[in-house]
Design a protein that fits this description.
Length: about 450
């Protein structure tokens, strides 16, 4: 691997791509430390470390922003609104005939869908910025006195526009990495923020002299990374045979190939779906917990106690696990239907030995995918509830948020590293150098 890295830096164009990616990350991290005017940064930091109700929700949003929410910076939302817009467009594509037609028009169609995704990102970013600041205001009184259309409309509008602009700049930086750097830019932006928080987490254990938990959590982190890497790379190869076609004096086809069905086709999306859905009831109930109406206050208190990741809220973690498994199957099915594998095989003259092209092939592929997805779904569910499992094993529920990297963060980090390594591998092999795997 060291030899492969040395080879990568000896190639001028590949070295330029790597250096460009690192420089963009430095620019993003610098912007992530510029707070929105009027924010009490120290109060927000204390709130995140306190473990109070609502702090877990803010920590999740902080993860997706790449650590920028710690200071409520201009990049506080990161690329999350763009991710949400992308997911919405993916779900709408098979439902809207016009979008479905665009998806089949090649690069030009994909560019139009990307443009629509950018347009959708702007209103989503505005709404998320407003909801995010209001939630933080309710959780930390006095953190931002000049926000609210009834209090300071111009200042509020300026804050929303600043945070929305920050999101669009983050998306632009991510796309620059995709086009001129190495790896998927949006994923690398999030990856950079997660990795940037590792030294402070390790430093916290060292400053407290908590060497036992540092060793324990380091081992858990390494083992989890190994399991995620194995399952992420796991695939079922379906053999495919292509029939021979004669055109003039030339014979085409006749070769054998395979369709790689991944064990985890959904990536980290089910965790984001499930966690977004799980934090919504507790965030809403938190606002009504001290309502004058005793019934409303009682219901809100029950939801906050049992459906937020705090204390002995085992109901939260069970529902979280089930939602992750369910969303894994749902999103995998959506992606599979968009690929139209059976139709594309039939068009190209390919078939699975022993099966008729068309409907039977589609049913067979769907059955195999459903079976192998069970392993991926259970892995994602296990990764999702890993903080709770660690707290149960160690017998200390306060440690559920003390992992060196959060479970969702681990999945993102491993996925981004594997994807980037594959791209570097392809670049090296194309230039006749031995790659990372070779």
């Amino acid at each position: 691997m060291l030899e492969a890295i040395r080879n990568a830096f000896t190639l001028p164009d590949l070295r330029r791509k790597i250096v460009f990616t690192l420089l963009i990350l430095v620019v993003y991290r610098a912007a992530a430390n510029v707070p929105v005017p009027g924010v009490d940064v120290e109060a927000l930091k204390n709130f995140l470390e306190s473990g109070q109700q609502g702090s877990t929700i803010v920590q999740f949003l902080n993860l997706l922003s790449g650590g920028a929410l710690t200071r409520l910076s201009v990049m506080a939302m990161g690329v999350y609104p763009y991710i949400t817009a992308s997911i919405i467009m993916q779900l709408l594509t098979p439902l809207i005939p016009q979008l479905q037609e665009l998806s089949k028009e090649g690069e030009q169609g994909r560019n139009k869908i990307t443009m629509y995704t950018h347009w959708l990102t702007v209103p989503l970013a505005m709404l998320q910025a407003y909801a995010q600041v209001i939630f933080i205001q309710n959780s930390i009184p006095g953190i931002m006195d000049n926000f609210g259309f009834g209090i300071a409309p111009l200042s509020t509008l300026a804050t929303l526009l600043t945070m929305t602009a920050g999101t669009m700049v983050a998306v632009w930086l991510g796309e620059l990495i995709t086009e001129q750097g190495i790896g998927n830019g949006v994923s690398i932006i999030i990856f950079g923020g997660i990795v940037a928080q590792i030294p402070s987490q390790i430093g916290r254990f060292i400053s407290q002299g908590d060497w036992w938990n540092l060793i324990l959590f380091s081992l858990i982190t390494v083992l989890t990374i190994a399991v995620i890497a194995v399952v992420q790379e796991g695939q079922r190869r379906i053999p495919v045979q292509y029939g021979k076609r004669v055109r003039g004096t030339k014979v085409y086809g006749g070769q054998s190939s395979h369709i790689p069905l991944r064990v985890n086709s959904a990536g980290m999306i089910p965790l984001i779906f499930a966690q977004s859905l799980m934090i919504f009831p507790s965030a809403l109930a938190n606002s009504f917990q001290f309502h004058d109406n005793q019934i409303v206050a009682g219901i809100s208190g029950f939801i906050v106690r049992n459906f937020s990741p705090a204390g002995d809220a085992w109901l939260y973690w069970i529902f979280y696990f089930l939602l992750v498994v369910g969303f894994t199957y749902f999103y995998t099915d959506v992606i599979f239907k968009q690929q139209n594998l059976s139709e594309n095989l039939q068009r190209q003259g390919g078939f699975i030995p022993g099966l008729r092209p068309g409907k039977r092939t589609e049913v067979y592929l769907n059955t195999v995918l459903q079976r192998i997805t069970l392993v991926g779904a259970l892995l994602l569910g296990g990764v999702a509830i890993l903080p709770w499992l660690v707290g149960v094993i160690t017998g200390n529920d306060t440690q559920t948020s003390s992992l060196i990297i959060t479970s969702t963060g681990l999945l993102i980090v491993v996925g981004v590293v594997l994807d980037t390594m594959k791209q570097l591998e392809a670049q090296l092999l194309m230039r006749h150098y031995e790659g990372f795997i070779g």
